[in-house]
Structure to design on (248 residues):
């Protein structure tokens, strides 16, 4: 299996974290290609930044999808996920959706542990989009502004573990989702200290991608995720034009 993982942010250090965790969890036969957005922001906190990240991801996906068997949008919040499924013939997965699916198989109510208070609204909306808002116990976040996105796990390890315990003891969470690409791998490293299952979005997405590949799913020909109708366009890159109008 050839798996393309795209970081919708411009932080190469975060791409490295994602890549390390992906290689650790992937099957030996899975070949992983990592890519970082060529434009955008260091990390996504808002809806507008997510829109930029979605376009940056679409550009890379349009260029490289044909050489891969599945794509992962590697930012919590899944920017552009549903839209990419309309135009690509291979499975497209996101960190949030994958983590939510894993969490729902491990308990009834889950909490999300995140790096920024500003990010909470977007995460809550993503949970709602997935139809799971009634199973969300809470979103717990760090209070201070992130200084170095690549070292946040080390800089705030004790605070993140404290947030986990608050979600369990005060919010009634059965499962915790450690959210965001900058926290890739944290669930594994702190699991012994936390008394409920921890879910990592990167690991979940990689394993779910392998499952979909093994199941041999194919692109829809009807329904809301069928390919968009062909129509005139202007100012788009050749790669984007090609996935919008593959017959041209």
């Amino acid at each position: 299996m050839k798996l393309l993982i795209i970081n919708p942010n411009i932080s190469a250090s975060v791409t490295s974290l994602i890549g390390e965790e992906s290689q650790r969890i992937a099957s030996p036969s899975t070949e992983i290609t990592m890519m970082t957005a060529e434009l955008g922001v260091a990390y996504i906190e808002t809806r507008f930044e997510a829109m930029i990240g979605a376009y940056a991801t679409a550009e890379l996906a349009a260029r490289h999808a044909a050489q891969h068997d599945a794509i992962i949008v590697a930012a919590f919040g899944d920017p552009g996920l549903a839209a990419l499924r309309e135009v690509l013939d291979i499975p497209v997965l996101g960190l949030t959706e994958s983590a939510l699916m894993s969490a729902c198989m491990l308990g009834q109510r889950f909490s999300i542990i995140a790096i920024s208070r500003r990010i909470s609204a977007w995460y809550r909306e993503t949970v709602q989009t997935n139809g799971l808002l009634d199973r969300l116990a809470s979103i717990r976040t760090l209070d201070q502004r992130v200084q170095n996105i690549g070292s946040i796990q080390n800089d705030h390890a004790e605070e993140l573990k404290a947030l986990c315990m608050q979600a369990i003891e005060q919010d009634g969470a059965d499962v915790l989702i450690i959210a965001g690409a900058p926290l890739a791998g944290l669930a594994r490293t702190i699991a012994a200290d936390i008394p409920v299952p921890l879910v990592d979005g990167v690991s979940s997405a990689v394993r779910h991608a392998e499952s979909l590949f093994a199941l041999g799913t194919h692109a829809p020909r009807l329904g809301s995720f069928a390919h968009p109708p062909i129509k005139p366009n202007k100012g788009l890159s050749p790669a984007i034009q090609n996935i919008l109008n593959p017959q041209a």
Notes: Strands lie at 2-7, 31-36, 70-73, 92-94, 110-114, 136-141, 175-178, 198-200. The longest helix spans residues 47-64.
